TrEMBL record:
Its EC number is 4.2.1.51. GO terms for molecular function: prephenate dehydratase activity. Keywords: Amino-acid biosynthesis, Aromatic amino acid biosynthesis, Lyase, Phenylalanine biosynthesis. GO terms for biological process: L-phenylalanine biosynthetic process. Transmembrane segments: none annotated. InterPro entries: ACT-like_dom_sf, ACT_dom, Preph_deHydtase. It is an enzyme of class 4 (lyase). Residues 2-174 form the Prephenate dehydratase domain. GO terms for cellular component: cytoplasm. It comes from Pseudidiomarina piscicola. The gene is pheA. It comes from the Bacteria. This is prephenate dehydratase.
Length: 274
């Protein structure tokens, strides 16, 4: 199995991809420099992709949700891993700090103390690589596990704002690559879907929410993403408890589809229930 994930090696995405890979008989990892590019590797360069979808503090990882809007993809599994960061530097007084865009928000207290420009990077490994190449006093926010392999002039350990910091990853395939998700008894499922808004009108969201409430479908996540077309126009990314084949979800979606386009991104075992 060829697994595409965010690289270079050393990212949390690599840890998540290896955790998923351990459940398979054989796998190889293929690294890409940006999250949107990881998903573009499907289907020709990879059989599945492992990408972060939500951090417990920072919320959803926008480039991933936006890729789902552009192209029908299938989420087949989810996994959650703990995320711990350190600040490492080549000098005690760095003049800039490299930090991945999602990592920056998870370490805001520490970063604000330094009061120097933050240079956003596509991955945590890229932040480390740029620090190693820097000739000026600089620092980088890096995964705690990087400290095992590298040494630095200055280290501040465990700089994450919240002790219980974790990120949820999803395993993604194209609709053609994914086998239909069979519902196994005794397994708690979650379903991810997108409501594509092309008929903005007063009460649009509340109408959809009332349908879910009427069928007693429990939503676990609801995020609006701008369509990029016009202010005030949004797509809705929703996660709910249950399998798309459950009668309540199927009935709710039939009603919602009368008003808006719905993209079902997949039903997969709920990792928080195991
Ligand atoms: O750069 C990495 O190490 C990643 O795997 C990406 C990523 C993310 O984008 O959410 C994964 C986990 C952390 O939340 C921070 C960064």
């Amino acid at each position: 199995m060829r697994i595409a994930t965010l690289g270079p090696a050393g990212t949390f995405s690599e840890l998540a991809a290896c955790e998923y890979g351990r459940q398979l008989q054989h796998y190889t990892l293929h690294f890409y420099p940006a999250l949107a590019r990881v998903l573009k590797a499907l289907p020709d360069e990879a059989d599945c992709a492992v990408v972060p979808i939500e951090n417990i503090v920072e919320g959803v990882v926008s480039p991933v949700i936006d890729s789902f809007v552009k192209r029908p993809l299938e989420i087949t599994a989810e996994l959650t891993i703990p995320v711990r960061f350190s600040l490492v530097a080549n000098h005690v007084a760095p003049e800039k700090i490299y930090a991945q865009f999602v990592a920056q928000g998870q370490c805001s207290e520490c970063l604000s103390r330094y009061d120097v420009p933050i240079m956003n990077t596509a991955s945590n490994s890229e932040a480390l690589r740029l620090l190693q190449q820097s000739r000026e006093p600089a620092a980088a926010v890096v995964p705690e596990h990087s400290l095992r392999e590298h040494s630095f002039a200055h280290v501040e350990s465990n700089i994450t704002d919240y002790a219980h910091n974790e990120t949820r990853f999803v395993v993604v395939r194209t609709k053609q690559q994914a086998e239909p998700s069979a519902r196994r008894s005794g397994v708690a499922y979650k379903t991810s879907l997108l409501i594509i808004d092309d008929t903005d009108h007063p009460g649009l969201l509340v109408e959809h929410l009332q349908v879910f409430a009427a069928y007693r479908v429990n939503l676990t996540s609801l995020v609006s993403r701008p369509t990029g077309q016009k202010f005030g126009h949004y797509h809705f990314y929703i996660e709910c408890e249950g399998h798309v084949a459950d009668s309540a979800i199927a009935a709710a979606l039939t009603l919602i589809k009368l008003r808006n386009k719905v993209m079902v991104l997949g039903s997969y075992p709920d990792s928080s229930a195991t």
